[in-house]
Design brief:
A hairpin with a 2-residue loop joins strand 2 and strand 3. The chain is α/β, with parallel strands linked by helices and 291 residues long. The chain is globular, with a radius of gyration of 18 Å. Helix 3 packs across helix 4. Strands 1, 2, 3, 4, 5, 6, 7, 8, 9 and 10 form a ten-stranded mixed sheet that branches. It contains twelve helices and ten strands.
């Protein structure tokens, strides 16, 4: 077992040695490369160092590249920042399908933590990544120092909650809207055309060329009753212009997750980490420092 882990870590170090990425808001060069897991090579950015690790999970309209506003802020604060392309996104390569079916994204996060030798971690998930983060917390909460869920519908399957979602986002009309309309708030679209263009460029390259991105299965059946079992320090974030998770929806989660804290970002849409990175980062860092 020790020899196998050594081979995995050797592959990780080799991959990171040959790949480099530059965060847009900093001159620091950040290592990136493939991490070999069973049946998949996850493309990851990992700033390294001895700081407490922060693992970030991207939305369905992104990849590890979308965290360019968070990497410099969190690394300057002393944290080790890790972000990967989930299966079906970016440069991650699925080598074979498991005989029992696709692996749950939460299991990929756990396999990654083991491969990188992370005993405890802070976990951040935005939008669809927030669903994965909650799924991970339900199975592996002993691994977590903290949990941050931003702008996420959470994957809750309670019938009344699903019905509310259909009222908020009627189908198929909602899905036919442009991605930037669904995911970015009107204030941001009005004030920052360059930021919108950059977001769209990253969204465009997040998909694997010529390959569909079927959702990975959930490890847990997520319900509000299940969320009541969580005892991890949790920060919930949304924007008051979020079409998916407006403040009343976020309060449903805050009422179920014990001791959770809420942050509402004014005029932010569904991509608060991108639209208001200074406020987003400040809220996350203040929360992490408490734990």
């Amino acid at each position: 077992m020790a020899r196998a882990r050594g081979l995995i870590l050797l592959a990780v170090l080799t991959a990171f040695a040959v790949g480099r990425v530059r965060a847009q808001l900093t001159s620091d060069v950040v290592p990136q490369g493939h991490v070999q897991l069973p049946g998949v090579r996850l493309w990851c950015v990992d700033t390294g160092g001895t700081g407490e690790p922060v693992v970030a999970l991207h939305a369905a309209t992104g990849s590890s590249q979308v965290w360019e506003h968070q990497i410099p802020a969190l690394t300057r604060a002393g944290y080790r920042f890790i972000a990967c392309d989930r299966r079906g996104y970016g440069r991650t390569i699925v080598e074979r399908a498991a005989s029992a079916g696709p692996a749950a994204a939460a299991d990929d996060v756990e396999q990654l933590a083991q491969a990188l030798g992370l005993s405890k971690l802070h976990l951040i998930g935005t939008a669809a990544g927030g669903i994965v983060a909650l799924d991970y917390a339900l199975s592996f909460q002993s691994r977590l120092r903290t949990l941050v869920v931003a702008n996420s519908i959470g994957g809750v399957q309670d019938p009344d909650y699903l019905e509310m979602g259909r009222r908020l986002r009627p189908s198929p009309q909602f899905e036919t809207l442009p991605a930037e309309f669904r995911e970015l708030g009107p204030s941001y679209r009005a004030e920052n055309p360059d930021g919108v263009a950059r977001w769209l460029a990253l969204e465009h390259v997040s998909r694997v060329p010529g390959a569909a991105a079927p959702p990975q299965p959930m490890k847990n059946h997520i319900t509000f009753a299940a969320l009541e079992s969580l005892a991890v320090p949790t920060l919930l974030i949304t924007g008051d212009a979020d079409l998916y998770t407006p403040p009343p929806v976020l309060r449903l989660f805050a009422a179920r997750i014990k001791g959770s804290a809420m942050t509402l970002l004014p005029e932010a849409g569904h991509s608060a980490y991108w639209e208001q990175p200074e406020r987003f980062n400040a809220a996350v860092l203040a929360f992490l420092r408490l734990h």
